[in-house]
């Protein structure tokens, strides 16, 4: 069986993408959660993950003797190994578009990711209001997300970005969580898409587990001193 190594569900956006993809697609896997306790070489997290992969990061997928690190590589591996799941859109142009926006998310939106780190359990609406007021780069990132999603939802008719659930929706699920945690303003059709993503069984299962974690990791809490 596949093994997926992940970090804390409340904080690990990279882990969320791979986990949600496999869970929502009903691909069996064994979860291996490695708690975030630090990223220096002496931390338990780093020692555990460095023994398993050259990057020492999560997520990490192991399939027998094969190891796949990085969330986008894991998505591609899953699509290749389970073609019947149709994880990418079947249409060539739509598939190219889906790959492009996942790559854009993978290497972009740095202002939003930096100012609004994922924290599913927290209510950071007040922080969000300040970030929105003061950080033009975050506003630009959110504007790009809204434009992208609106176009795709109209083009493909919803309910997901490419009609049916795909890697793209799994890839943007952590962003949906950020937008909710910080209550950043988005148009009504985008808010509706965010809610649909949150109601996907795979996403809901991740969120429920994150809320049940009850693990306050100080290094992932730039805005709170305690729960």
UniProtKB/TrEMBL annotation:
Domain of life of the source: Bacteria
Record key words, sorted? Transferase
Q: Which CDD domains match?
A: GST_C_3, GST_N_1
* Span of domain GST N-terminal: 2-86
- The reply to whether Transferase figures as a keyword in the UniProt entry is yes
> Where are the coiled-coil regions?
none
Biological process annotations from GO: glutathione metabolic process; L-phenylalanine catabolic process
Instruction: Kindly give the InterPro entries that the UniProt entry links to this protein.
Output: Glutathione-S-Trfase_C_sf, Glutathione_S-Trfase, Glutathione_S-Trfase_N, Thioredoxin-like_sf
Task: Give any GO molecular function from the UniProt entry.
Answer: maleylacetoacetate isomerase activity
Task: Output this protein's name.
Answer: Glutathione S-transferase family protein
Species of origin reads Comamonas piscis
Please name the taxonomic classification of the source: Bacteria, Pseudomonadati, Pseudomonadota, Betaproteobacteria, Burkholderiales
